[in-house]
Amino acid sequence: MRTRKPMLILAGLMLLMAATRFHHFGSMSLLPDASLAAFFIAGFYLPAAWVLPVLIAEAGLVDYVAISFAGTSSYCVTAAYVFLVPTYAAMWLGGRWYATRDRLGLGLERASLLVLAVVVSSSIAFLISNGSFYLFSGRIEALTWSGYVTQFAEYYPPYVAVAAAYVAVVAVVHTLFAQLGGDLGKPIARG
User: What is the Cα–Cα distance from 38 to 55, expressed in whole angstroms?
Assistant: First the structure.
């Protein structure tokens, strides 16, 4: 029974990522991409090293299917695409860092630490993914600091906000479930 919970959590995160990854920003009828949050949450609940490459492989597979069969634009698939590996690793490591310091939940101290972990890890992830796209994608004609700052100002707030919103929902569900006597799982490794 104990090994079943991590597999259910992994399956749930994979399903969430597959269901939302087709449209990065979402729309009135589609949820925004939950990939960043999925990696953070996986880092919290699933510390096994093999989880990270499994989720990275799924992200690549979903992108392939979305582009090849669902009509999603391939605009973002450039030489910079490989930088999604350290981008997602930053999120997973952020979840691991938080797991070694606290349990997911509510309360001012816990919430502050969780916000810190999500904001820092998603900021690092943004700098890696957005910076690499800006520098190496070949899609930006004139590389300038002012151009990057403009892009940063446009894409950074929703990038962090979407990840934080998904993590917040999981934190609330985790806390409510725990208060009802349930156990969604705890970080396996502490310290």
Answer: 9
